[in-house]
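To the wet lab folks,

You asked to see what we're planning to order before we commit. Fair enough. Below is the target structure as tokens, and below that is the sequence we designed to fit it. If anything looks off to you, flag it before the synthesis order goes out.
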């Protein structure tokens, strides 16, 4: 019984994490379509952020006219030279939450650092351990250290108007639909390097077997171990492929094996057969270079690709475990297109990232690095050509429901529409896995004639009212019994319980946490501020804080110095998160560093946050972090704030923290366990009998199980009904 419950909790943890990721930030076709067609075109807001050179240029105006004709509501922000990335993001934040909030953002221009020039739009430095050059913060609209995108962002990474014209022409050509070989839309090239510890080839094979073959697509295998080389890659791309994916080793100038570099792209002849190129390899998308490999694919006129999704730095490699995130992300990418039926590149990529976060069970730092490493170069609204599956199921999202123990749960149902796009009839059935809290109703089986439709409702039923706090899931299967083309699944996820405050430290007194260097508990003196702002003179509430050097700035040449909590018992908690208030000053991470980490053993640490830019807080700032993947059900959780390393100049005030809180959902009490020893036995019966006959003022611990204020026969009967229970 103990091990079963433990397994349930692990499962519940993953499910609730999935719910949080998908329900709060993920893409759904219904959301983007706004009642438009399946390509997603419609009245969505499309924001173009352009360097001044390209504003009102002929190619950019051509692109705007085309997007407007497709139904997008396009606006343009021309960025003056010298504008910081923070100013640009503030412009986006001012639109967020208003009717003008964009669903798509296109950055027009290459990048040269943290501020704009007449031809460039600045990038960011990622907050995870790799500090990857990234456009991700332009898409993240939540307060605090957010790295989950709310907006689909792409970049036309060009240096001059002529190159912009070439990129625009390819992008619009893909959407125009008049191709030299229409069958190119059903092909994909899969390149595998032989130095991936045996991971590349099975990853590609799995995608081809599970997504390409069932949907009538052709996967062209270009595996180095089988002798594939440069000419084979050239021939496949010139033949025409809607997708090309490489898995292996590389540099900023090209893929290593099969070898394919910038000069090879320049010599392609795939005019009119442009697709999306994807790479699980190092540095090929490092757009801080004058022209990286990914930019060559994008920039070449009448050849190359219409969109590129490449990493801007080093990924993980060297062992099967290190390559595993790349495998999961490749699965997720094709799942978004060929299972979720999302055909706009930006929304498909955004959905793939959230699939990856749910399916990857490693560290949060690795997850965040993958979110930050991969940048989309191309139009984020680009709609790829495709042939609809014979059987289609909409909407694409599952039923994601939550509520307190006992209900109600919101939303409590979802209705799916099945349609037959084939010119022949299809026999179908709809089933679900096994959860007794899920009910299916409607047209659960039958025959769909050409253009026929059916409707199925998935509902959370009253059995869910009896479930304890935790995460639960089920799967609904939509099966094409005729030829299985278009078979689909939809997840049903139920999260029960509302996080509550479990621990708090207001620092009215010293909690005795571990300190190194100049970390100390006490009242800050308002000192420091050689750069940025000085320390505060009191806490967020009350006089005291934990701070690094309560009397001034941090030192130069500082190695890492930690403030570490004592062990926090989260053994009965799920959906664990932390909150605290900070006043922080630190130079940009090229020079000085700060970080926040979490551990469940005091030795292995996962980075929750590190500074991705200069920080100069002038007031107290609330910080919130999800630590569920590390802290759920763990008895020894530690939080660590780190100051350092620092360089030889420019000192700031460093950390000041106050009002630290741990939030989570507590395990439901074991009914009848009056003495709290983990089971219902003679001790609990004796405790109830000692208070039997009380007529008022009785507590639960006295034996008042029905909580009506007395201890009587109904309480005794309730306890006897669970007597002998061992609590999970």
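Sequence we intend to order:
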């Amino acid at each position: 019984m103990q091990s079963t419950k433990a397994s349930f909790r692990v499962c519940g943890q993953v499910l609730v994490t999935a719910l949080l990721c998908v329900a709060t930030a993920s893409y759904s076709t219904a959301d983007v379509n706004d009642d438009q067609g399946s390509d997603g075109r419609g009245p969505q807001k499309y924001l173009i952020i352009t360097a001044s050179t390209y504003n009102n240029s002929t190619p950019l105006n051509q692109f705007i006219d085309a997007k407007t004709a497709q139904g997008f509501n396009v606006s343009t922000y021309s960025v003056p030279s010298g504008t910081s990335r923070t100013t640009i993001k503030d412009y986006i934040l001012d639109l967020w939450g208003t009717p003008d909030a964009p669903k798509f953002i296109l950055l027009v221009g290459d990048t040269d650092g943290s501020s704009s020039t007449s031809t460039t739009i600045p990038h960011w430095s990622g907050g995870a351990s790799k500090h990857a050059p990234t456009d991700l913060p332009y898409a993240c609209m939540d307060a605090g250290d957010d790295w989950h995108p709310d907006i689909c962002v792409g970049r036309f990474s060009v240096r001059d108007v002529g190159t912009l014209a070439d990129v625009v022409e390819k992008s619009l050509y893909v959407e125009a639909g008049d191709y030299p070989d229409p069958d190119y839309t059903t092909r994909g090239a899969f390149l595998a390097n032989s130095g991936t510890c045996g991971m590349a080839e099975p990853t590609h094979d799995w995608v081809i077997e599970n997504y390409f073959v069932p949907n009538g697509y052709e996967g062209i295998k270009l595996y180095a171990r089988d002798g594939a080389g440069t000419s084979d890659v050239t021939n496949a791309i010139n033949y025409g492929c809607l997708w090309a994916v490489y898995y292996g080793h590389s540099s900023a100038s090209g893929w290593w094996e099969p070898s394919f570099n910038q000069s090879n792209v320049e010599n392609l002849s795939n005019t009119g057969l442009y697709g999306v190129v994807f790479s699980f390899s190092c540095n090929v998308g490092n757009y801080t270079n004058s022209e990286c490999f990914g930019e060559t694919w994008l920039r070449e006129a009448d050849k190359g690709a219409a969109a590129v999704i490449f990493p801007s730095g080093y990924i993980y490699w060297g062992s099967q475990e290190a390559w595993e995130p790349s495998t999961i992300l490749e699965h997720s990418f094709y799942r978004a297109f060929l299972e979720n039926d999302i055909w706009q590149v930006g929304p498909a990529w955004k959905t793939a990232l959230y699939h990856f976060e749910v399916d990857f069970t490693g560290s949060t730092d690795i997850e965040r690095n993958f979110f930050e490493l991969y940048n989309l170069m191309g139009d984020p609204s680009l709609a790829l050509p495709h042939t609809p599956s014979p059987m289609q199921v909409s909407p694409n999202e599952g039923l994601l429901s939550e509520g307190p123990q006992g209900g109600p749960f919101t939303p409590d149902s979802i209705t799916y529409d099945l349609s037959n796009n084939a010119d022949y009839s299809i026999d179908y059935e709809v089933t679900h896995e096994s959860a007794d809290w899920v009910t299916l109703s409607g047209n659960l089986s039958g025959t769909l004639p050409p253009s026929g439709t059916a409707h199925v409702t998935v509902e959370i039923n009253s059995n869910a009212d009896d479930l304890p706090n935790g995460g639960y899931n089920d799967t609904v299967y939509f099966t094409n019994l005729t030829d299985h083309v278009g078979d689909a699944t939809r997840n049903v996820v139920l999260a029960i319980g509302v996080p509550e405050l479990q621990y708090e430290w207001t620092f009215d007194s010293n909690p005795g946490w571990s300190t190194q260097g100049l970390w100390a508990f006490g009242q800050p003196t308002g000192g420091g501020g050689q750069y940025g702002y000085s320390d505060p003179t009191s806490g967020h509430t009350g006089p005291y804080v934990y701070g690094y050097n309560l009397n001034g700035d941090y030192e130069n040449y500082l190695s890492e110095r930690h403030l570490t909590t004592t062990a926090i018992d989260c053994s009965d908690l799920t959906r664990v998160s932390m909150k605290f208030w900070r006043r922080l000053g630190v130079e940009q991470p090229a020079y000085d560093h700060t970080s926040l980490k979490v551990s469940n053993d005091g030795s292995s640490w996962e980075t929750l946050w590190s500074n991705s830019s200069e920080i100069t807080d002038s007031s107290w700032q609330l910080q919130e972090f999800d630590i569920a993947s590390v802290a759920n059900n763990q008895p020894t959780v530690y939080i660590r704030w780190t100051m350092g390393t620092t360089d030889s100049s420019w000192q700031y005030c460093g950390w000041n923290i106050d009002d630290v809180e741990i939030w989570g959902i507590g395990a439901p009490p074991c009914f009848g366990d009056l003495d709290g020893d983990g089971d219902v036995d003679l001790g609990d019966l004796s405790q109830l009998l000692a208070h039997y006959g009380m007529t008022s003022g009785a507590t639960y611990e006295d034996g008042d199980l029905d909580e009506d204020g007395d201890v009587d026969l109904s309480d005794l009967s309730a306890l006897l009904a669970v007597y002998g229970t061992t609590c999970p």
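Structural context that might help your review: The longest strand covers residues 470-480. The CA atoms of residues 526 and 537 lie 5 Å apart.

Thanks,
Computational group
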